[in-house]
Predict the structure.
Amino acid sequence: MLEPTITTASAPARAERSEAAASRLHLVISGHVDHGKSTLVGRLLADTGSLPDGKLEQVRALCERTSKPFEYAFLLDALKDERAQGITIDAARVFFKTATRHYIIIDAPGHIEFLKNMITGAARAEAALLVIDAHEGIQENSRRHATMLSMLGIRQLAVVVNKMDLAGFRRETFDGIVAEFGAFLTQLGVSAETWIPVSARCGANIARRAAEMPWYTGPTVLEALERFRPEPPAQDRPFRLPVQDVYKFTNFADDRRIVAGTVDSGRASVGDELVFYPSGKRARIQSVEAFSRDERPDVTAGEAVGITLTPQIYTSRGELAARSDEPPPEVTTRVRANVFWLGRAPLALRKDYVFKLGAARVPMRVEAIHRVIDAADLGDTGARTGVERHQVAECTFKLHRAVAFDVSADLAATGRFVIVDDYDIRGGGIVAEALPDRDEALRSKVLLRNAKWISSHVSPERRAERYSQRPTLLVVTGEAETDRKELARQLEVKLFEEGRFVYFLGMGSVLYGVDADIERGGEQRREHLRRLAEIANILLDAGVILIVSAAELTQSDLDVLKTSLPAELVCTVWVGDRVTTDISCDYVLTDAERERRGADALKTVLEDQRVIFKPW
Ligand code: GTP
Ligand code: MG
């Protein structure tokens, strides 16, 4: 079962890890189309002697045979998948080294890819080169890329003014671009460390000082690279392991559960206590089962690992593990974010999107748009209702359930997100601030309860196996007049007769018992729901399918349930054609469907959710 993960760790990624000790710098190369990014990278490889022997001649000869003018950019294509002399190229990355350090250059083909790579963390960059064509001058993407770099928090920047040969190597052309673009960068709050006039094609000021531009006395591109400072190594930051998957072995009485993921930052060893957020569950690392190496007692940033825990708590994809002796991540349902929008349709209020951060995927809505700037000219567009393509906005997002993350300025990897609509990435950005939400106080109660929870020696897998079902809270809601309660009770009978471990809990049963000491309704509504959720939590832990019926639940009610319980175990159905509250339910059961199929319709929901399996 672990096999696929081994093969997805690409060769460069592995090479990168094995060289973890050497000084490394991740560099992104950006700029408008055709301004010479690939040529510059090709030149760097050629002029630093990083190319495999004979490669340059081979590509030149091929060009001659096919009567194509030689391009340094061709070197990049020719090198794809080649792994000679320590240089490796994959889809968007070029690896090369100088005497002092290793470089990983991210040469993104287009700016969608650039943004995707940057914000999904497929490529994290500590510094950037921005290429501007001296002849064509500053273009839209020159500005956009600079805006994105600043939004992504990349503060080390060198601007390379390329194709100086086309500008007659004139100083005035260079100075003009420096003045104009410098003013733009100042507006962004970014300052470029260096401005370098070059001709990538001629090799001027790339690795050798250009005789053609005696007026320039600053560093060459190569010297500028060597001046960039690498970020403090990720392994020295707080430990963060996003849970990608939990593998369970239920065969041959082996009920180990392996929590798998790639460590974003920090380090942890066998015996360290981890806290999983948002649930707050705690356990110690019992063993480390690494995929591509011998068993070792610790894990560090950049490694794809599997760990086993003691006790074997239930955690799931999307949780973020941190060490209990280090600063915790933020946990909330509201964030202030800087977002760069790429979707054809504008980012809109009152529309559902999917927020993806690390391994977490959560439905979200835009609560407010505070500022929209055009990425090309950086003017405030004044818009507050939507974000158009290629605009950057400062927004507040409301997530449907809590997510654990870090503010980007503290920890970059766990502070980046993308927004998905219709299965495609439409935008992305960084979390600028964690905002309080209504459920903060409740969340701390739940964190404490989970921290103190006494786990059973019987694992959830064993229970699921015994009962042939996944524990679930099925919430059946709808208008007061509908017969949803009767429907829920019929479902209980149906499942019970099939041999399921199922229980229907009426609100009245809680109201006059567990809730006997508090007033009904009004102020106490959230407390009623919290207590209901605590009962549900125990029953879910016991492996039950719990059916609850309640009239006209609102989103705030549902938030209480989802904050108190593992959100993925809660399933909601609205009975009736018209949803009359602000709740966002998983299913809506129409009147026609209810009349036709009755409780069977609810059973289908459980099958859909794989709570129970079809062939019994
Ligand atoms: P995209 O990847 O398509 O965005 O382009 P790019 O920025 O990678 O540009 P690329 O390196 O492919 O260069 C585009 C064109 O500009 C090619 O025809 C290069 O030969 C030419 N070019 C690049 N650098 C120079 C230069 O210094 N002088 C001159 N005259 N042409 C150059
Ligand atoms: Mg290119």
